[in-house]
Design brief:
Elements: H1 10-15, H2 22-74, H3 79-109
């Protein structure tokens, strides 16, 4: 029968004779490994969530500058600027959607 360990180091558990069988050792290592995976998963989610606002902002900003520059070169103010801002919004939304889909797939694998 498998034991519950609480929080203890490997050496402490061995000294207290709480880990005696191979099955207990497997469970102990699986618990430690799972905690490490969860920690890195949390960091990855934080990184993803802080990236999304930047992506949403950068697309339309780049569209504004590119559209303004083209409008000045071609004399079509403000039409290309508006068009490229809209392209920026669409591209940013598509990228955020791809991030969310990829994150959801990785979470389901987990």
């Amino acid at each position: 029968m498998l034991k519950t360990y609480g929080i203890c180091l490997w050496s402490d558990c061995l000294q207290q004779e709480r880990i005696t069988s191979l099955a207990d050792q497997f469970v102990f290592f699986h618990i430690v490994e799972k905690k490490e995976e969860d920690k890195y998963w949390s960091y990855k989610q934080i990184g993803l969530l802080t990236t999304i606002p930047f992506i949403l902002a950068i697309g339309p900003i780049l569209g504004y500058f590119i559209g303004s520059w083209l409008d000045k070169k071609l004399g079509t103010e403000p039409y290309l600027m508006i068009l490229f801002i809209l392209f920026g919004f669409v591209a940013s939304a598509k990228q955020v959607y791809n991030f969310i889909v990829r994150s959801t797939k990785e979470e389901q694998k987990k």
